[in-house]
Design a protein that fits this description.
- The chain has a six-stranded parallel beta sheet, sandwiched between helices.
- It contains seven helices and six strands.
- The two termini are about 20 Å apart.
- With about 170 residues, the chain is an alpha/beta fold.
C-alpha cells in the first residue's frame, strides 16, 4: 500500500516543533512514528538509545504517536536514568507529521509484527535514513543503500544508528 507524500514543513515549523519538545539544535534524533502498542517492540528502543548515548551523548529518541502502551514507555523512560533524552509528542495530525519527520535524523522501526508499515514509506518520502528490524516488511528499504536492516536486538539497532551518526555523508546519501 502506498502513501501520499506529506506536505513539506518549513524551517520555521521544524524549529518551532523542536523548541516545543525541548529538542536542541545539535541533538541527533532517532524517531519512531506510529501507534504506541506493545506488539510493536517499542520498549527495545530505550536500551538501544542507552547504547547510542555512550558514543553520541547528543542522541535523542522521539516517539511520535499515542496508544495504550505509551504509559508503560513513559515509565520505562523515567526509570532508565536518561529519560530527559526521550521525547513523547503524543498524537500529531497526519497533515502535520512532516514536521516531526523533518525534525528527525534517523527513522527507526523495531516492529516485527506489522503488515504494512506505512510510516516507513512516509519517512522515505521525507528522505530519512531508515533502520528496520523486519526485512520482509517493506520493499522501500534496501539494506546499505537507503537504510539498514538490523537484528531484533538493542545492540544491533544501536550499531546501525551509531554507524549513521558516525558518517554524516552516509546519512545524506541514504
Amino acid at each position: 500500500t502506498g502513501v501520499d507524500a506529506l506536505p513539506r514543513a518549513t524551517a520555521a515549523q521544524v524549529n518551532e516543533f523542536k523548541k516545543r519538545f525541548g529538542i536542541a539544535k545539535d541533538d541527533k534524533v532517532m524517531s519512531y512514528v506510529g501507534r504506541l502498542a506493545a506488539e510493536k517492540n517499542l520498549a527495545s528502543l530505550i536500551p538501544t538509545l542507552k547504547k547510542v548515548l555512550k558514543k553520541h551523548p547528543n542522541a535523542r529518541l522521539m516517539y511520535v504517536g499515542d496508544f495504550d502502551f505509551r504509559e508503560e514507555l513513559e515509565r520505562l523512560a523515567d526509570e532508565s536514568g536518561f529519560g530527559d533524552r526521550i521525547t513523547f509528542t503524543g498524537r500529531i495530525p497526519r497533515e502535520e507529521l512532516s514536521v516531526a519527520y523533518q525534525a528527525s535524523d534517523i527513522f527507526i522501526f523495531p516492529s516485527t509484527t506489522d503488515t504494512q508499515g506505512l510510516a516507513i514509506h512516509e519517512a522515505a518520502l521525507v528522505g530519512l535514513p531508515i533502520i528496520l528490524v523486519d526485512k520482509h516488511l517493506s520493499e522501500v528499504v534496501i539494506d546499505g543503500q537507503n537504510g539498514f536492516i538490523a537484528n531484533d536486538s538493542p545492540a544491533s539497532m544501536a550499531n546501525k544508528v551509531i554507524t549513521l551518526l558516525d558518517d554524516p555523508e552516509m546519512c545524506k546519501k541514504f
